[in-house]
């Protein structure tokens, strides 16, 4: 199996069996993200305690890239403190724009193939940009409910 095929398998596995799917009723942060160009929509529910993401769930619909990226993201940020999450956001966005990640991104490396299709990069970064903006609001104001639309 080639690396491209392996990456494709990983993306389809997360799409077919999304991790941390569902809703959190006690979330500290709720953020919706939309990528109208492709029709992708996601909602993230984060429970933050003591500067750490203690639980995370998501709901969403759209293409396999957007949903797989969100599933992978929930898996890697769960249990991490907010500074680690910021570093992951930077590393992932950097990777999607051609930079070699300096920290372990786990399954997320499967998404680097998407770089060959520039119009789909927004599908991959949707959840990450929503998360980043939600964390900015959270650190300014505390608990937030927000919506982010990719332009
Ligand atoms: Zn998409």
Could you outline the blueprint of secondary structure elements for this entry?
Layout: H1 3-16, E1 29-35, E2 40-49, E3 52-61, H2 64-77, H3 82-96, H4 121-141, E4 144-149
Parallel strand pairs: 1-4
Antiparallel strand pairs: 1-2, 2-3
Helix pairs in contact: 1-2, 2-4, 3-4
The structure holds zinc ion.
Can you give a write-up of this model?
- Strand 2 and strand 3 form a beta hairpin.
- The protein is an alpha+beta fold.
- A four-stranded mixed β-sheet has the order 3-2-1-4, with helices on one face.
- The chain has a single domain (3-146), classed as Sufe protein. Chain: A (Alpha-Beta Complex), CATH 3.90.1010.10.
- The protein is 42% helix and 22% strand.
- It has helices at 3-16, 64-77, 82-96, 121-141; strands at residues 29-35, 40-49, 52-61, 144-149.
- The site of zinc ion (ZN) has 8 residues, from helix 2.
Question: In percent terms, what proportion of residues is strand?
Answer: 15-25%
Attached small molecules: zinc ion
| Multimeric state | single chain
**Major sheet strand order:** 3-2-1-4
The CATH topology is what? Sufe protein. Chain: A
Mean pLDDT: 94
Q: What Rg do the Cα atoms give?
A: 14 Å
Largest sheet: 4 strands, mixed
CATH class, named: Alpha Beta
Structural class: alpha+beta
Helix proportion:
40-55%
Number of helices: 4
Separation, N- and C-terminal Cα atoms = 36 Å
Low-pLDDT runs? none
Q: Assign an overall shape.
A: globular
Annotated CATH architecture: Alpha-Beta Complex
Write the H/E string, N to C.
HEEEHHHE
Number of strands: 4
How many domains comprise the coordinates? 1
